[in-house]
């Protein structure tokens, strides 16, 4: 039996698709995020004909597809497909005889070898839809721009998709499903190391953190040792990986603004714009803007989006020379000593996710936007800034400290005053790794300040609501 973590919404939607045949699914998502696994789980027990494409030519793909198709006809002579028309005529005949799921995985490689394939699929799909042939066609791919382009108005498949999900990495709570531990600090540190990509979580196994870092990430030959380099070299539209690597390394070292990155890398404005846009499209970086009711967007900063990539660029990339010579224990000791410094931004992200998806309504309520806020000079920053109807409703401070005292609350109150009338009625909330001083607890009770620990981020709530749309 296939065990799948989270993805309940996607599984339910794919289950509904099976009852709506004919149906066309376009499934997008980064590599390792679990697209193939999801389709296997959703179509378990169904009659499936699938192809996992790669970088070979059209005849190579057709040969593989013929081998898979022959499995449906045991005892019959081997099949040969000379064109995709031949292959889809076979699919047509099989679907008319018995309901069928056709899965073309990593569809971008098929189309690179045969650019007319979307038009060929469209021609057969229109026939199947018109004649109500009981088939589900699932096109899956990790080339996000290409797969999204299949849905554009000038694409042959425009307007035909029955279901078109974007599969994203899991959040911190769902990622906890890959380990048997229920200890909040371990789960958050693990998430900060490998993030929410399901395959990375599986590679990490259920290991103590020290063994995970040294044995699964810092050791040559392990998949997590050089995964970012492989992905960058194979990335859609990337012709010069070194330029992209320079940009990512610049951001990892703290160059968060356009001019800083340009100065560090020596890139021209036009060239850097293209590099940043491509890295955003691939999901490697993201632009952060202050969470502001007036949507003032003049203070954007860049950061590496995925926790594992942030960890890798912080600890693996600058130490590759030592690691190549086997000095794993030396680097691992430095990682252990510094890990709590890496935790700060990850903990902030997890707290925002908790508020947007899991907190009870008496803490959060409805909202229009959630993020952070900072001044242009960077001297004042609010870790949590929630707004609704042009006013701030909740402001928070997040500290990956064992115990938080009143000084943190004082600083948050000062920031609220700096935000002015729009924040005058905003409730305050503090997050800490383990807890709060007794004096702070007493004051929080008097002033109606919410206090949340790392353990609370994993606790069940009576009323979580469904706020996923506000991510």
Topology, please?
Blueprint (H helix, E strand, L loop, with lengths): L7 H11 L4 E7 L5 H8 L5 E5 L5 H13 L13 H14 L2 E6 L1 H7 L3 H14 L4 E7 L2 H6 L16 E2 L4 H4 L8 H11 L3 H7 L4 H9 L5 H12 L6 H12 L5 H8 L3 H13 L3 E4 L12 E4 L2 H10 L3 H5 L3 H31 L10 E6 L6 E8 L2 E9 L3 E2 L1 H14 L7 E6 L2 E2 L1 H10 L2 E4 L18
Parallel strand pairs: 1-4, 1-5, 2-3, 3-4, 10-12, 11-13, 12-14
Antiparallel strand pairs: 6-7, 8-9, 9-10
Helix pairs in contact: 1-2, 3-4, 4-6, 9-16, 9-18, 13-14, 16-18
* Number of DSSP strand runs: 14
For the sheet with most strands, the description reads:
5 strands, parallel
> Mean of residue pLDDT?
92
CATH homolog superfamily of the largest domain: Winged helix-like DNA-binding domain superfamily/Winged helix DNA-binding domain
Indicate the CATH architecture of the largest domain.
Orthogonal Bundle
